[in-house]
Amino acid sequence: MDLQTWKKFAVLQWVLTFLLVGPGCAAIMLILFRTSWWSAVLLYGVWYYYDRDTPRRGGRRVNWVRRWGLWRRMAEYFPVKLHPTCELDPKENYVLGYHPHGVLSTGAFLNFATEATEFSRKFPGITPYLSVLDGHFDFPLYREYFMCSGVISVRKRRRKTAGGQLVCVIPGGAVEALDSHPGTVYRVHLRNKLGFVRLAMQTGSSLVPCFSFGEIDLFNQPAARCGRGHGLLPFAKPINTVVGAPIKVEKNYEPTDEQARDLLNRYISDLELLFCANKAKYIGTDARLEIV
Predict the structure, then answer these.
(1) How far is residue 30's CA from residue 194's CA, in Å, rounded to a whole number?
(2) Which of 126, 101, 104, 100 is CA-nearest to residue 115?
(3) Does pTM surpass 0.90?
(4) CDD domains of this UniProt entry (predicted)?
């Protein structure tokens, strides 16, 4: 297998895993339950119930999985690159907002759920977590594999933690995914997204704006509704993820709507500055950011 084919395989297995492996694992468990393997399925069911809150308690990362060469080949296919604009203090905790969502949040996965772009070297002492919807952890077996990369539930329970933790949140969600069109106009759904801001305030974590140039270029929108670029492969378009400077946040267990909105407005201002400062380098001077 030549290198380019290997890169395509790496991307294809990820797309198929995202689309099919979860439901496939559930179907396999149901089939096995009707065979002589029913007792093994039952035992796993007991384990599943006992372990059901793990995705909300920090997950179960396996660094060996995060460092697979498979992820590096996948990152090289586009390519995906991570660009820090400043250092992050490992004594502090961070909530990073990732924009835009794109169709499959490819850059978010490769940058924060794997070591494909050398996150640990670029941000020494920081442990990243990628937060996703709870539904990803409903599928048996698939949830175990998915958690290995350091992925956690977006409903992660707040608790006291040591410094050096970074939680990546993708506020735009499914609505923003459907609003992702290749080109120079980036529509980011953010003005009413107070949840990740409240999380930062309630935990006293610094807010970090992050913009991923090229994330919207991987799929044509009509095909994107089916999760496809050309065939099942996304387009090989570069993704440049720029991590901005953190905004210091004071801990506030019960922030008011006004306090949360004031912080969100400051965050939006910093995100716009980050976009304008980097667009010429990574996408072109005619690129435009629309925050809705």
Answers:
(1) 39
(2) 126
(3) yes
(4) LPLAT_MGAT-like (cd07987)
